[in-house]
Specification:
By secondary structure, this protein is α/β, with parallel strands linked by helices. The chain has 10 helices and 9 strands. Strand 8 (197-200) and strand 9 form a beta hairpin. The longest helix has 22 residues, at 220-241. The two termini are 37 Å apart.
């Protein structure tokens, strides 16, 4: 599932909710393991449905889509928690329980820090280990899978090659998914302009780019904005790998997005229906998960998230 920003003179797809990943000098397979409460008993489906009802009052219901927005062009029916359960969704299992991050190419020091923090955020968001693999060089990618953008002149990598040749054959046995990140721009083939990301959810592999999120080295606000965008892209697309469809009812991280501006207006948190899906799929302790998300948001300036998360925590604590 991928969506793209429109550009003049080229045929463009739409584009999913943003953000990206890792460093160019060797990084040993660091693992980010979320802090779980050993005595926690996973919530039952009736308990999750009750939690969904409790959280609804603090969530913003979407109005009619405005011209140019995702839902103005895409007719999607959404997905309730009950519909999600009936879809036989992919979930974490004892044999497939780890998210792997594969860096491709070179990153500056600030981008390396963005990737490190985003990996930590992924581990909190999905309550599972995240392992960052040693980077792969772009030198291993053939010339047929590279191009210079015919109008903009920037360097791009072909997504289909990365998914089929670089990632799918190397999916670790214990991987829930393998997601690659690059600072290079991406394009999915003839007739397309660019994409922020592209994924094969059946194969559980995907690749996303940082190149259009702004330079995090410019100043503190540029770094914060790039981190927020990266966390959105990573968690949104990984959410699809957990069989979650686009959200059409609430302001939610799983909304579709038709532009960078639209994505920036959307939250990183989940609506009550999508929250229940993630808790079901990961068997996470919802209170501990929210505590960890609040802590991360406070430490790294994701201010728009903190107020919502604190309200959600109060409801779940009661």
């Amino acid at each position: 599932m991928q969506h793209f920003l429109p550009q003049p003179s080229f045929k463009i797809p739409l584009f999913c909710v943003l953000l990206a990943w890792i460093a160019c000098f060797p990084i040993s397979a660091d693992a980010y393991q979320p802090d779980r409460q050993p005595a926690f008993r996973p919530l039952s489906i009736p308990a999750l449905k009750k939690t969904t009802k409790q959280l609804k009052p603090i969530n913003k219901v979407l109005g009619d889509p405005q011209p140019g927005q995702w839902l103005a062009h895409q007719k999607e029916s959404g997905q309730s928690f009950s519909e999600y359960l009936r879809s036989r969704p992919l979930t974490l299992t004892p044999s497939r329980h780890t998210l792997y991050v594969q860096p491709i190419g070179k990153f500056n020091a600030s981008q390396q820090e963005i990737i490190k923090l985003s990996s930590e955020y992924l581990s909190i968001y999905f309550s599972c280990p995240v392992k960052v693999l040693d980077p792969q060089s772009e030198k291993d990618i053939p010339a047929t899978a590279k191009r210079i953008h015919p109008a903009q002149g920037n360097h791009q990598l072909l997504t289909s090659y990365l998914l089929e040749k670089q990632l799918a054959p190397k999916l670790p046995a214990d991987a829930f998914a393998l997601i690659a990140f690059t600072a290079s721009d991406l394009w999915p083939g003839d007739g397309w302009n660019f994409v922020f990301g592209y994924a094969s959810f059946r194969e559980r592999v995907g690749v996303w780019s940082l190149s259009r999120f702004g330079d995090p080295a410019n100043d503190a606000e540029s770094f914060r904005r790039c981190l927020e965008r990266t966390c959105k892209l990573a968690t949104h697309e990984t959410g699809h790998m957990f069989s979650i469809k686009h959200c059409t009812r609430y302001a939610c991280n799983m909304q579709g997005s038709n532009s960078l501006q639209e994505s920036d207006s959307q939250p990183v948190h989940l609506c009550p229906e999508c929250h229940a899906k993630i808790i079901f799929a990961t068997q996470a302790d919802p209170v501990k998960r929210i505590d960890n998300l609040i802590s991360f948001s406070q430490r790294h300036g994701l201010k728009q998230e903190i107020e919502f998360l604190q309200k959600a925590k109060k409801i779940l604590d009661d």
